[in-house]
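Hi everyone, sorry if this is the wrong subforum. Our group has a chain we'd like a structural model of before ordering constructs, and none of us has done structure prediction before. Sequence below.
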Amino acid sequence: MIRKTVYWSIAVAFCVSFLAAGPLSSPSARAQEGTVSQTPAAKINPALPGSNTGTLLKATDGAVRIDRSHYALAPGALIEDFYGNPVPLLEYVGNAVEIPVRYWLGTGETRNQIVQMILTFSE
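Answer:
Right subforum, don't worry. Here is the predicted structure as tokens:
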């Protein structure tokens, strides 16, 4: 009975590891077949109406202080530099900074939350 249980648990572990490994063909082989589609990274749309400007003074985990106002970051908020490169805002958490920004507040569920922000670093 113990031997049967051991064999059964090994078989289950093998199946789970096999399924977790995914398909047998490599991503490059699937790309040659044309079955791999890459999703482009989301980019800020500066043409959206309602942009505001200010100075980023401080960032906390999930929120920012711009001028005299505090804003939460909407889930999936886009933060880029002037050239369109993504900026990890976590680098500025807890630090007192003064970075000119252009930002957009959301509507509906993201009302009064920043949905996209462009940081302009001085040269």
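For your construct planning: The first strand starts at residue 51 and ends at 60. DSSP finds two helices and five strands in the chain.
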